[in-house]
Design goal:
275 residues, alpha+beta, six-stranded antiparallel β-sheet, two-stranded antiparallel sheet, 9 helices, 8 strands, 53% helix, elongated, disordered N terminus, disordered C terminus
Length: 275
């Protein structure tokens, strides 16, 4: 037998391995979510945040001369506290924005705020109504304001740095995680390790899918950070604060994957897994 004939025979005898899509998908989604969270939080950490002086400037432009904005405080937009901040003040005496909400926007306190906001160069000045609040909102110089009867808030707008860093981090981490998954699967693993990794991949998939579906909401240049928040904060919140919810789901999904794939994995001649 010649060397050329022996080569195909030896290749045919070698264990064949197939890249398991569930593990590859889990790796890509984990990389996408963690990379996007890292990029978003880093971008917000490098972005300028509003100050009490900024709020004073906005208050001077929007409020009547007889109204004072006091008790100024800086708050995190997100409960986790990683992302952007907003600055809040109380309005004394309170305005009658809620009382004027059903009247034309050129009358009452609402009309006065609209007139002053437009004269000061604010754009997208609107009256927003919801079940729990009525407020006049607008934007200027990278800041968004929200004025209610007794409260004035300002928050930064989402600049291009945030979505760019989020997308770059998500794409980079996803490619790296997918590459590592392919390489590690190609190297072969013992039967037990293969089942563990597969079960773990299935266990994290529900959480990663939720985080991935939520990602586009945070890619909104020009929106108020008070409305969008920080993707890194929401990911950390889902992973840590919602761990009690996801843990039983992960355990059940992982157990199903352990049993299901344990029946399909067979050890090869050298202990590697043959698919």
């Amino acid at each position: 037998m010649t060397a050329s004939a022996a080569q195909p025979a030896s290749e045919a005898a070698a264990p064949t391995r197939r890249i398991r899509k569930s593990r590859l998908l889990a790796a890509i989604l984990c990389g996408l979510v963690l990379g996007g969270a890292t990029g978003s939080t880093t971008a917000w950490a490098l972005s300028p945040q509003p100050t009490a002086d900024d709020l004073g400037t906005v208050a001077t432009a929007l409020l009547p001369p007889t109204t004072v904005a006091g008790d100024v405080s800086t708050l995190s937009v997100d409960s986790v506290g990683l992302g952007p901040n907003e600055v809040r003040a109380t309005v004394d005496p309170p305005l009658a924005i809620t009382a004027n909400a059903d009247e034309p926007t050129d009358e009452g306190d609402v009309g006065d705020v609209f007139e002053r906001a437009r004269a000061a160069g604010f754009t997208d000045v609107l009256l927003e109504r919801s079940q729990d609040r009525v407020a006049v909102v607008g934007k200027r110089h990278g800041l968004a304001f929200e004025l209610q009867d007794a409260q004035l808030d300002i928050a930064p707008l989402v600049g291009w740095l945030v979505p760019a860093a989020t997308v770059a981090g998500a794409a980079g981490f996803a490619l790296l995680a997918g590459y590592r998954s392919v390489r590690r699967q190609a190297d072969g693993r013992s039967r037990t390790v293969a089942r563990l990794v597969t079960a773990g991949s299935w266990a994290v998939l529900p959480l990663m899918v939720v985080c991935t579906v939520a990602l586009p909401f945070f890619l909104a240049p020009g929106a108020s950070a008070a409305d969008t928040g920080d993707y890194g904060s929401i990911v950390l919140g889902l992973v840590v604060l919602g761990f009690g919810l996801w843990l039983p789901i992960a355990a059940v999904v992982g157990l199903i994957a352990w049993v299901l794939f344990g029946r399909r994995l067979q050890p090869g001649p050298d202990g590697d897994v043959v698919f």
